[in-house]
Amino acid sequence: MLTTWLPFEWIVALRFLREGRLQTVFIVVGVALGVAVIVFMSALMAGLQINFIRRVLSAQGHIELLAPPAETRPLRMGIHARPGELEGAIIQAPQQRLKSLDQWQAAVSQVRAMPEVVVVSPMASGSALVVRGSASQAINVTGMEPALHYRIVDLPGKIVQGRSDLSGSEILIGTKLGTDLSVMVGDKLRLTTVESGARGSDITLTIAGIFDLGNKSANERSTFVALRTAQSLLGLPGGVTSVAVTVRDVYSAEAVAQRITAATGVVADSWIRTNAEFFTAIAAQNTSNSAIRFFVGLSVAFGIASVLAVVVVQKSREIGILRAMGISQGQVMRVFLLQGGLLALAGSIAGSALGAGVLALWQRNARTADGTPLFSLVLEPSLFASALGVATVTGLLAALAPARRAARLDPVVAIRG
Amino acid sequence: MAEAAAQPVVVGLQAVRKAYNAGTAIETEVLHGIDLTVRRGEFCAVVGPSGSGKSTLLNIIGLLDRPTSGLVRVCDEETTLLGDRALTRLRGHNIGFVFQYHHLITAFTALENVMMPMLGAEEFPNQAMRTRAEVLIASVGLAAQMNQGAGNLSGGQQQRVAVARALAMEPALLLADEPTGNLDTRSADEVFSLLRRFNAEHGTTVLFVTHNVTMAQRCDRTIEVIDGQVTA
Fold first, then answer.
1. DSSP-assigned letter for residue B8
2. Domain extents for chain B?
3. How far apart are alpha carbons B159 and B14 in whole angstroms?
4. Chain B residues close to A17, C-beta within 8 Å
5. Full-model pTM
6. What is the CATH number that goes with domain B41-65+83-230?
7. Do A326 and B85 touch (CB under 8 A)?
8. Out of A92, B18, B21, B124, which could bridge B129 as a Cys pair, Cβ 3.0 to 4.6 Å?
9. Strand pairing report for A222-226 and B9-20
């Protein structure tokens, strides 16, 4: 029953939609399918990206502070040479020599004080040879402070045998290395290094735990020891080769890295710069995703516009009589705009539900060989809110042309039919 | 006659011309300088052959169409210079229409069709609107059918609902463009009697376009339109 609390335009729009049930259902289903595709694609793409970023960042900090690379240079630069003075021999950069980060404690203090920074973990990394009986294998040794480093890399979560706690005489190794050397937790390994052919270190460590990083090469080559142990082994007393930093917003890493370099003078590489190709791929993916969304939205808009154009023709006599009864052009226009908006809103609600359903189905069925989900999808309320908002605005815009046509109908012509 | 002449003028036309495609080579003038005065309470038959300009004249009086030249005064308002918004308001509050085809909105019930012109009008809050619509629909003899869909009524019933709808805003002027043209004799007579009754009870001015000579003779006055001119 008609009531005055609901504006006239709403009453007529709702009745027109109800009267043309089949048309209404078809266009709502059309909008719903379009919105479902957009919701599904957006969640899938966002999930893919977040999953990829998570994988990339699960093994490294967002920013790495490094010692400046050694350069090949002449002993005396030409511009500084006095007249008649000859340049000296070229100095080659050392091939293997590890270099400690200069004044790293001061740099770490400065970086820790930055509000965007979450964790700062100094590390000493280098190559070594692990010897077990007659077998030996080249490995990469990372020395770190477990309390800090485990906040960046979830090594405890990847331990398959033993524990992740480390004392100065213990080591964590990968599953592949353990198999190759036929060792288990509690066994001892001898690590040796030869630094610049002059200084060599030799240390025996007990295996505290064995981890699985999900990568054969990493499980073969990566080992973790306490920072002091690595400093001693690698001939870096009190030194570190790098500092891993995490920040609150992973996408701000490059900006923070630049600020760190400006403030400390230390070379700071963000994960964004070191994974530039990944970001190029993401940009390409986002562009194609936007293009698909645009064209789906466009087809939805044309669907609504075409249905409403037909409704205007069908209802022209009614529009004429409404105008004769004193209904203004603006009111007639709003009747059709509302129909467009309501069709799109109903379609987008149904489409969001459909999209969420398909996503749930996909998540349940898309699994890796070991049965774990391929990756987790991102189902944020903001995605649905924006789908609803954009679809409704699209519906209103799509209805604009038919609404204007309806409003401009000459009542005399419309009534005459 | 003297009593009618004392009534205020509801419709006043002066030298009204209407041409289609004005200013072009195919300009067709359908009304040629019409002067017409209709006073409050008059029940006028508008007669004339098909194509003589009766409907065009009614559309101009009803503010649905604009004259090419001349003055149109309706319910004490000179309308020539009014914009669409003002014309719409004037039409909504002062003029009721009944057409040959009922033009009910089939998405609504009979009662709702009668309520439609009152929606949003300040003088009709919810209950008053409903009560008035019920009274009107009962007065056209359709109390039992008021909640039926407009599309489910017979032709005569639909036209009676159209009459009730036209009277919803208590208009000073009712324009009926061949409202009985599509009806059988009995239904046509019912609709005519209804209009006559409202004219008598409320003083509503009625312009009634008809080809039916008998009905025209039952009106107070006959306005004859021939070749775009009022001859009587």
1. P
2. 41-65+83-230
3. 32
4. none
5. 0.69
6. 3.40.50.300
7. no
8. B124
9. unpaired
Q: Decide if A399 contacts A305 (C-beta within 8 A).
A: yes
Average pLDDT over residues A370-381: 73
Contacts of A306 (CB under 8 A, 6+ apart): none
How far is the alpha carbon of B218 from chain A, nearest alpha carbon, in Å? 27
**ipTM for this prediction:** 0.79
Binary contact (A326, B62; C-beta < 8 A): no
Residue A373, classed as helix, strand or coil, is strand
As given in the structure block, the two tokens for residue A82 are: 């006095």
Tokens linked to A314: 């069908």
Among A65, A126, A82, A52, which Cα is nearest to A376's? A52
Cβ contacts below 8 Å, chain A against chain B, sum to 74
Residues in chain A within 8 Å Cβ distance of B108 = 2, 15
Question: Are A172 and A218 spatial neighbours (Cβ–Cβ below 8 Å)?
Answer: no
Instruction: Quote the CA–CA distance of A111 and A292 in Å, as a whole number.
Output: 42
Look at the alpha carbons of A54, A58, A61, A66 in this order and tell me if their dihedral is positive or negative.
negative
Show residues of chain A in contact with B115, CB under 8 Å.
Answer: 2
Kindly state the tokens that stand for B106. 């089939």
Cα–Cα distance for residue pair B221/B198, rounded to 1 Å: 17
Fill in the DSSP letter of residue B149.
Answer: B
Quick one: average pLDDT of A351-379?
80
- The DSSP bridge pattern shows strands A242-247 and A63-66 to be antiparallel
pLDDT in tens, B53-78: 998 999 999 999 999 999 999 998 89
Average pLDDT, chain A: 85
Nearest-angstrom CA–CA distance, B84 and B71: 16
Q: How far is CA B79 from the centre of its chain?
A: 17
Phi and psi dihedrals of A391, rounded to 5? Answer: -65, -40
Interior/surface letters A257-295, b for 16+ CB within 10 angstroms, e for the rest = beebeeebebbbbbbbeebeeeeeebeeeeeebeeebee
Nearest C-alpha neighbor of A142 from the set A45, A64, A38, A74: A64
Q: How many Å apart are CA A224 and CA A140, to the nearest integer?
A: 8
Tell me the shortest Cα–Cα distance from B169 to chain A, in angstroms. 9
Cβ atoms A120, A111 nearer than 8 A: yes
* Cα atoms in the Cβ-side hemisphere of radius 13 Å centred on A346: 16
Predicted confidence at residue B122, as pLDDT, reads 67
- Tell me how far CA of residue A262 lies from CA of A242, A247, A250, B189, in angstroms: 17, 17, 19, 97
Q: What is the pLDDT of residues B113-160, one digit of tens each?
A: 998 888 766 676 667 788 889 998 988 888 899 999 888 998 889 988
Q: Kindly list the residues from chain B whose CB atom is less than 8 angstroms away from the CB atom of residue A406.
A: none
A373 CB-near residues (< 8 Å, 6+ apart): A363, A366, A367
A411 closest CB neighbour out of B64, B93, B125: B64
